[in-house]
Specification:
The chain is mostly helical. Helix content is about 60%, strand content about 0%.
Length: about 140
């Protein structure tokens, strides 16, 4: 069976408005993004199927959490703190030293989907974010 048959996100279409994104306010601002990131890493730490992507990270996730929070704040249309501190995200370039294929993408998405189910109460917003996250996670793949 090919991986397309196993990919629950294959039918998602990407969002058109990634650059001018109103989702920062819709999700509830920085406090909710912090909760989302906390839940995301909770699932990365606890789901057995996420052990491979968890191993790609440092044992202490404190710095990684802060970076993801800042990235998501900006990516979701909030203040541009990430770019001011770190420059252009260059997501593909920053992830090139990891082998990221469909399995890693889908595991990352699994953790994020669980986190969104915990934090994002609006089903329409959750679907929009899922589409945007999938587009970005798929873009980062370097092991096709």
């Amino acid at each position: 069976m090919n991986s397309a048959n196993h990919n629950p996100y294959a039918s998602l279409k990407p969002l058109a408005q990634i650059t001018s994104n109103p989702h920062f306010a819709s999700i509830g601002g920085e406090a909710q993004i912090i909760k989302l990131v906390d839940r995301f890493y909770h699932y990365m730490d606890t789901l057995p199927e996420s052990s491979q992507i968890r191993a790609m990270h440092e044992p202490d996730l404190s710095h990684t959490r802060q970076v993801l929070v800042k990235f998501l704040i900006e990516w979701l249309g909030g203040p541009k703190v990430y770019s001011a501190e770190r420059g252009h995200p260059r997501l593909r370039q920053k992830h090139l030293h990891f082998s990221i294929g469909e399995a890693e993408r889908d595991t990352w998405m699994l953790c994020m989907q669980h986190a969104m189910e915990d934090v994002v109460t609006d089903a329409t917003l959750r679907l929009q974010l899922q589409q945007a996250f999938f587009k970005t996670a798929d873009f980062i793949r370097n092991n096709k």
